[in-house]
Every structure is written in structure tokens, then in C-alpha cells.
Amino acid sequence: MTTFALIGAGPGLGLATARRFGAAGHAVALLARDPQRLDDLTAELAGDGVEARGFAADVLDIESLTAALYAAGTSLGPIEILQYSPVPRADFMKSVLDTGADDLDAPLAFSVKGPVTAVNAVLPGMRELGRGTLLFVNGSSAVRPNPNVAGTSIAFAAESAYARMLHDALAPENIHAAQLIIPGAIRPDAEHSSPDVLAERLYDIHAERHGFRHYAEPLPDPRPEATP
């Protein structure tokens, strides 16, 4: 059995993807800061017959993130699939003109140092397996900068560049790096962006192993409507 490791475990998209990969026969490692949340999610997954364990970690703490992924691979089995999808903090959402240099420290640590740390932790195991999948989940500001959320726009763009380089560099080793862009809000009633639909899309990206960037739905037209 190999392991699906989810960084940014939560009751929405995270739980849905954990269920989907668990249903495919993978053990599930849930990583998040809140131990109580992890206990609740693992109990819910156990009710679905999914072997899951929680590992407390903070993506801003390189040592805790590395240790959690090592523990996950050791206790559950080698990590074949890594999903990086933690939700950015509200204080990353300043406008571009209100954003100073110090305001970028946490967003860049969150969206660049965190993924780099996670990938470096799981890559040796994927190489031993001879296969692997790295899934990066971002909002639309990763590909269309939004001046109202400058921190995430800048950090997501950097994360995208890193993920794209991984896609190219690791393809010869049968390790597939891909990004899913979710333009709108994740809602249970959304046609293309409900947790279950997105989980199925992420599983398909893993299984089909084709292309780097994928969209949950087309980006909305940014142009204002023409006035008569």
C-alpha cells in the first residue's frame, strides 16, 4: 500500500480528496496544524473504511513539516501522492499598494518554502517507488494577479513557477507534477467546484498523468461589459 499525503487537511476539499484516494486503495496521511481537526477527520474517514492518520504540522515550520511527512511515510507506507493545498491566511490578502516587503515573508514561506520542503521530503521515497504525483492546488490569482490580494498573487505565481519546473525536471523519472486552478469558491452546490467534483478531478490528474496546468472551470472574462 502506498500513501496519499494531504497538506492542508480540512472538512471540505481535503476530506473529499482523502476519501477519493482512500477509496482507490491508498492510505491517507492528513497534515494540518490543529490536532483536534485531524482527529475528527480521521474518525470520519475510518467510518468510510479508509485507513487514515493525522500528523500535526505547520507549513511555516520547515522542521515540523519535514518530520510529519517522514512519520507519515514510515507509519503508513511510502508516499506516492502529495497534495499541497493549505488555505492562505487572511492577513495575506492586502492590496498591492498596502503591501510592504515584510508583508511578503509569510506568503512566500507558505507558498514556496512549504512546497519545496514537502517535495524534498517525499521525493526520495517516490524515486524508490519509481513513480509519484505532486498535486498543487491554487486559486485564480496564481495565473491572473489580483491587486486586492497581492500577497497570494505574488506567492502563488512563485509556487506555480516552482511546480512547473518540477513538472519538466521530474517527468523522465515517472513523477508527475501538476497544478489545479480553482477560479471560484468551493461550494457543495457548485457544478465544477464542489469538493467531490474537485476530488475526482484531482484523482483523474493523478491517474491520467497528462499536462501541467488544469482548470476546474474557465476563468471568468476580466473585461467589463461594454456600455451602450
UniProtKB/TrEMBL annotation:
Gene3D superfamilies: NAD(P)-binding Rossmann-like Domain. This is SDR family NAD(P)-dependent oxidoreductase. InterPro entries: NAD(P)-bd_dom_sf (IPR036291), SDR_fam (IPR002347). It comes from the Bacteria. It comes from Streptomyces bobili. Pfam families: adh_short. The lineage of its organism: Bacteria, Bacillati, Actinomycetota, Actinomycetes, Kitasatosporales.
